[in-house]
Structure formats: C-alpha cells, structure tokens
Amino acid sequence: MDNKLKLPLLVLLLNCFLFLALSQTASNDDVEALNSLKDSLQINIPSWVGSDPCSGSWEGITCKNSRVVSISLPNTGLKGQLSQNIGSFSELDTLDLSYNKDLTGPLPAEIGNLKKLTKLSLVGCGFNGQIPDEIGSLPQLVFLSLNSNNFSGRIPSSIGNLANLNWLDLTENYNAFDSTDFPQWLLTMKNLTTLRMQEANLSGQIPAGFFSLPSLQYVVLSENQLNGTLNLGPNYSKKLQLIDLHSNSIGDFTQQNQPPSLKVIQFVMKLELPKLSANLYKSQMEIHKTNVQLLVAALIRVSVPCATVPCAITTCIAGVYAFRQKLRAERAISRNNPFGNWDPSKSNCGTPELKAVKQFSFKELKKCTNNFSPANDVGSGGYGKVYKGTLPSGQLIAIKRAQKESKQGGLEFKAEIELLSRVHHKNVVSLVGFCFEEGEQMLVYEFVPNGTLKDTITGKSGIRFGWHRRIKVALGAASGLAYLHEHADPPIIHRDIKSNNILLDEKLDAKVADFGLSKPILDYDKDHVTTQVKGTMGYLDPEYYISQQVTEKSDVYSFGVLMLELITGRKPIDRGKYIVKVVRNSIDKTKDMYGLHELIDRAIRDGSALNGFEKFVDLAMMCLEESGADRPPMSDVVKEIEIILHSIGLDPAADQSEPSTSSSFQHNEVSLESSHQPYSSESLYSSSEYIQKHHEHEPR
C-alpha cells in the first residue's frame, strides 16, 4: 500500500477504536450521579460493582449511547431521601423507584431538569411535602404516578403543562392535599386517558368540558367532596369506560345530545337525593354499569313539580324508592345475622348462593381439632391460624380461624363464602364449610397433605420429584387456573399465583390455593382498575404494576415465573437478580438445552434426560411476554403442556408420578407425621381480603 494512504487509514482506525472505547463506558456525569444516588439511598444491590454502570451488569440500569436512560429500582429496599443529583441524568427516559416505603423526604425540584423523562413512577414510597411546581417542566412525560405517598399542600397547577401526559395518579395521599375546587387545568390535557385522584380533597362541581377530553377512558375521583350536578356534556369522550365518583356529594345527573352510538360506561356513584314533599324518602341511589339512556331514565329528579311530570310516573317512582328503602332496611337487619335463613341441615336452603358447603357450629370444630390444640396447628399467616381437624366421617380438614384484626363484616364474610362455594375443580382447593358464631369467623377447607410446591422445590418438605413430575405439576396448576378464569361462576383472577400457593395432594397433584387477593370477573368488569397493586414481588406482572389494571393475563405472567421456578429451583428474586431477566438474557437457541445448563435445578439436571425441556422454556417465555395481549390464555397453556407430555410419551390424564428410570420417589415415602408443617406462613389461608361488592375497585 502506498505510504501516503497508510497514515490517514491508521488515523481513521485509531479514531474508530477510541469511539468504540468511549461508547462502551457511561458518561462521567451519569457515573457521578449514580454514585451519589447509591450513597444517599443506601443502595445495596450485589450487581452494582465496577466503575461502569453501562456495562450491562448493573441491575435496574439501562444505557443507550453511553448515557443512562432508565433507572428502575422498585421494591429494592431504598432508604433515605432523593438527592438533587437526580436532575443530572439529562438523557433519562424512565425513573421508577416504587414500593420503597423508606424512601422519604420531599421530591427535589431538580426533578424538573429531566427534560426527556416519559415515565415517573414513585408509587408506595414515603415521600412527603408539596409536589414541586417543577414537575410541570417535563415536556415529554407520559406517565406520572405519585400515589400512596404522604404528599401534602396544594396540587401544582403546572401539571397542566404536561401536554403529552396520558396517565395521572395522585390517589391515596390520604387527604393531605389542600382543599381545592376541581382543577381547571385538567381541561387542557388532551392526551389524558386515565385520571386517578381518589382522596385528593377535591370539591365543587366537575365541569362538563372535562369529559370531552378526546382520549379519556378512566376517571376515579372517589372519596372527595365533589358536589353539584354531574354533567357529561354533549360531546363526552366515546372512549369512556369508567367513572368512579362514590363517596362524594353529587346531587343530580344530566345528559344532553346523546350520540346514537353510545358506548357503555360503568358508573360507580351515589346521588344525594333531595327530600320529597312528604319527607318520606331520604336515601342514596347507587348506579352501576349502564348506558346513559338507562341512567337518565333511572335518575329521577324528584324536585321537579308534579305538574311538569306525569303523575303516574311520579307515583311509580315513589313506589320504586319505597321498595328500595324496604330492601335497604332488610339488608341493615341481615348485616348482623347474614345467615339468618340458613338451614345447616340443607346445603342450599334459604341461601341459594351457597353451594354444597356446610355451616359448622363452633362446638363441632372445637371437637374435631381437640379444642384447637397446638398439636393441630399446621400453619399461620396474616389472617390467623390454620388447624388440622378430623370430621366424624374421618375426612381431614384444614380450618382457617380468623384472628381479631382480620375479621370482616358479616355480609362480607358471607360474600366470601358465596364465591368460594362456587369453586369446584380437582386442581383447586375446595371449601367444605364455615363457622359464624360466638364471635368466630372460620373457613373449613379440604386438607391437602403434602404442603406447598415451594417447600418441595427447596427440599424443605423432604419430597423430591423429577422433571416429568414437574411438568405434571405445572399442568395441574395451569388447569386449576384455567378453570378459575374461564369456568368458575363468576370467573376469578387469582392475583397471587406463586409456588407457596400451589399445594400438593396425596398423589402429588397440584391444587391452586389462597384466594386472599382474588378478584371476581363480572360481566361488566372486564377491565379492573385498582388503586393499589396487590401480589408478590417477583411474580408480579409488570404491565399490571405499571397500569394498575389487572386482567387474567396478569395471572398468566405469574404462572410463567412459576414455570421458571420449576426449571431452576430458584426464587424469583435471588440475591438481587430477577430470574425472568436472567433466563431471558441466557437463552441461546443455537445450543443444547438453550444454553441454560447452569441455571437448571441440580435435582433434575443430574438425573434423566429433560425431554420436552425446550418446549417448556418456550411456553414459559410466552407467558412472560411484556404485553398481556401477547400472552396466551391459560386454556392454551394447558393444551401446550399436554402436548409436551404427549411428545415425551406420557399421558396427561394418568396418575403415574415418574417413569421408574427417572425418579426414585415413591408415594409411600410421604409422611404426614413428619416435623414439616404442610401449610407454611405464606401458603394457603394467609388472607381472605378479596371479596368486594361489585362496584368497588379497591381490594380490601
């Protein structure tokens, strides 16, 4: 090569090497800011080692072009106050520090320096003081969630400057905000889809123009002091799905120029009715999912003189309200004794909602547990203790006995029993009966002898099984979950699928347990909106976590995590590492076993061939898709697991445990008299707070 060309070429190559070297390390400003963040928030994440946070090893940190673009550290035990250095991340797109309750102090004004921020999520922390005005200086912000903190003072009107915002959540700051009229700046937010300002100390009337925001879908303004007339206006958003205004003082409703193609809207509202001339009816009217035509027909303006309304209609209306008042009085009486019409000798007498469950007397349960002997105590949780008992027929039962702090109202307890009594499937733990007397609230379940799947995976139970049995357990759990989603009446979203909530019966078949966080799916409640995310970190669906809208696909995600647990034998979050991310980053489909040898549980890795392993991993990763729409329904998951079993020569319906060549486990090795407690503190019967009336959107 000509010497004249060599020198420019060498210079060019040198520049390329320098560029690559520089592009692989984080900028000094970001490194300094992260180190400051690490010190001020006492971050103790094992993967945060080395001098370069953009190396790809720092958990929760994402970089692009050598700049930090995402800090996602939910539920990582952060403590202290957020320093002003947070404003130094000039390229930051996402900041999520949610569910760190010891993250306190004010939100620094420097947050307004993050001009490229699109998502700010600080849910469930301990921030206090006033939300800084600078929050309105984030031109690209799309998602703002500051709920479940201790913010106080005035809500900054500068939020109205966030032209791209589609999600605003300020709920559960416990009425610490200054009392204010409905914010007029909300009317300027053309891209807003979801507004959640429960307990925000709002008063006055909601302007009709607010409902005309073209993208508006969900409005939750419950537990405020809003009053006056609710007027949706003539051009309300056709995307509206939920308006929750319960626990306000709204006195009337009006609707004009109703479009011919009106979409169904779910209303949760109570109207304060004016007095009738005879002063007979003082009540509240509850409205649930209806279209506006029916709503307008049902909302009676009793203050209008009879001369302007046909007297026949007025008389009919008065009769309707009198009937409603009678029902309300009956409900008030029955609240103290919700089982007044229950005949213990007949499974359904007087209470047709209760299917095939028995009402036990306190004396009966006391006898079958030997006076609730400590020897019969097989577990405990936040709800109370669980006792093993034996009925006169010889049937083993597990009795969940509520402690004082966990007891519900009588009607709520009855509602819980009504829902549980409808659940009947071989892969779901069955309710046998209940006790509601002498101040006790007890639920009686079938006894499942071999404890939790978690205890088996970790070796705590003394039971060990191989790869094929793990697939069969996955099939059982999937079948139970598919039943809850598609065949229970009403269908149920579990919301807390995890290995602790899968129990193993005498044949080591899986049974889904613990409906403590479950949500019934009513016909008009397909999109659930909850003020606070419920579930277990590590199993929690990130889409549910971000949107706070739970669907059946949230359970599918949790089941995907459970499948990885069966493969790896590891906890979902182990030493600061998230198993989903670890597996996803390790998969290499060009290699045998997808290159996951080191992650496979040693208890099965060193045994027989893992037939069907790759298909099982593929299915797990489908369940773990980031978007719920891309995840399969549980019925499809069941079919896929059955296909895997067929492909390896096993009958999904058979009771055999493992082929003799692949497992040393024998059923006669299971001992119910071992020192192991079959119900751990986190397993079945740890909670019963899932029953709500159908108009409520906040889990108990």
Give the class from helix and strand content and strand pairing. Answer: alpha/beta
Number of domains: 3
Largest sheet: 11 strands, mixed
Q: Describe the strand arrangement of the main beta sheet, using strand numbers.
A: 1-2-4-6-8-10-12-14-16-18-19
Give me the Rg, rounded: 29 Å
Bulk shape? globular
Distance between the termini: 79 Å
Specify the CATH architecture of the largest domain.
Answer: Alpha-Beta Horseshoe
**Quick one: CATH class of the largest domain?**
Alpha Beta
Give me the number of helical elements.
14
Average of per-residue pLDDT values:
77
Can you describe this structure in just a few lines?
This protein has 700 residues and is α/β, with parallel strands linked by helices. Helix 8 packs antiparallel against helix 10 (552-568) and helix 10 (552-568) packs antiparallel against helix 13.
How would you characterize this protein structure?
The chain has 700 residues and is of the alpha/beta class. The chain folds into 3 domains: 28-247, Leucine-rich repeat, LRR (right-handed beta-alpha superhelix); 358-446, 2-Layer Sandwich (Phosphorylase Kinase, domain 1); 453-650, Orthogonal Bundle (Transferase(Phosphotransferase), domain 1), CATH 1.10.510.10. The protein has 14 helices and 33 strands. An 11-stranded mixed β-sheet has the order 1-2-4-6-8-10-12-14-16-18-19, with no helix packed on it. The protein has a 6-stranded mixed β-sheet with strand order 20-24-25-23-22-21, covered by helices on one side. It has a 4-stranded parallel β-sheet with strand order 3-5-7-9, with no helix packed on it. The N and C termini lie far apart (79 Å). 40% of the residues are buried.
